[in-house]
Amino acid sequence: MPIPSDRDPWQRVRVSGLVLGLVTVAGTVAYIVLGLTPLDALYQTVTTISTVGFREYGETDTAWKITTLVVILMGAGTALYTLGVLLETLVEGRLTDRIERRRTARRIAAMQGHVIVCGWGRVGRTIAAHLQGAGAEVVVVDSDPGRASLVEGPAIEGDATDDDVLRAAGIERAATLIAALSTDADNLYITLSARALRPDLFIVARARVETAEPKLAQAGANRVVNPQKIGGARMAALALQPAVADFLDVVMHDGSLEFRLGEVPLRAGSSLVGRTLRDTQIRDRTGALILAVRDRAGAFLTNPSPEVVLEADQLLIAIGTEVQLKALTDEARPNGTSRSAEADVVAEDR
């Protein structure tokens, strides 16, 4: 359910209600000046505005008649307008929308470590589908009310380049932000804004042209993805090695196979640190197979030999079942620590 960030359907109701209250107060004061007690003056004003006219007080002199006429014209018109606006708001379902927006806001406020997807176009929908399929919590941001209303899950209707909109999406507690808008300029602005709000946030940005890739990286994006380039590379891989391409696609994205790829951070204090792959006997102990090791500088060592010594803060790229990858994650954590609520194993769906 989207949360509109720049309009309030109850604004007219509040304004008309305020005007009606001012007319009531003014009429009450006028009748007090004409000689009624405060209670009688309020009673006379309310019955006049409502056109009930039951048990009127006071005299029928000129001042009284003029005051009553003014109260009728201003009060009755304002009351009818307020009632019309209220009925319009209720009939159009805005009350339900307001309740849903508050519910969605509470849901986002309770999220921790979620992914913010900016842009609900073809790319954004595909990204969200894969993330949700992997069990990740997703908040979508899109400025188009029609597209935002189609999101199945928490959504913010607003401009993703606006800091307040990003805050409404829970950027302070998010683990990742994906800028997937259709223009490089918007994605660049989102990246700059998100990096300023959260220096430690992991940001993935979409690029339409190659010249925008270094600019997005300089703006603070941890990863820059060109969907056209990736699509072309995949089509070429299908032409050259279709079986290999299909296998990798199924393992990383499909989920129909029992095995999947995962990344496991190696923490300081783990029993694996300082030992060779041969000595750790990871394959025998967990069932997971180590395909590559990524060092602190980001370099990959693929198909590591059994004599490679594991170090803290490395990233292990492994393949295995969910149970096997969880067992490897347990081995990679410091000894004596319990599994945290945040999953250490991240499916390789990027």
Could you describe the 3D structure shown?
This protein has 14 helices and twelve strands. The protein folds into three domains: 2-91, Helix Hairpins (Orthogonal Bundle), CATH 1.10.287.70; 111-230, NAD(P)-binding Rossmann-like Domain (Rossmann fold, 3-Layer(aba) Sandwich); 258-347, Regulator of K+ conductance, C-terminal domain (Alpha-Beta Plaits), CATH 3.30.70.1450. Strand 6, helix 9 and strand 7 (223-225) form a beta-alpha-beta unit. It is elongated. With 350 residues, it is α/β, with parallel strands linked by helices. It has helices at residues 11-33, 38-49, 62-91, 94-109, 122-133, 145-148, 163-168, 184-197, 212-219, 227-240, 242-254, 277-280, 282-286, 322-332, and strands at residues 2-4, 115-118, 138-142, 155-157, 176-179, 202-206, 223-225, 260-265, 289-294, 300-302, 315-320, 346-347. The strands form two sheets. A seven-stranded parallel beta sheet has the order 1-4-3-2-5-6-7, sandwiched between helices. A five-stranded antiparallel beta sheet has the order 10-9-11-8-12. Helix 1 packs antiparallel against helix 3, helix 8 (184-197) runs parallel beside helix 9 (212-219) and helix 10 packs across helix 11. The model is unreliable at 3-7 and 338-350 (pLDDT under 50).
Provide a concise account of the structure shown.
With 350 residues, the chain is of the alpha/beta class.
Top keywords for this entry?
350 residues, alpha/beta, Helix Hairpins, Rossmann fold, Alpha-Beta Plaits, 3 domains, seven-stranded parallel β-sheet, five-stranded antiparallel β-sheet, 14 helices, 12 strands, elongated
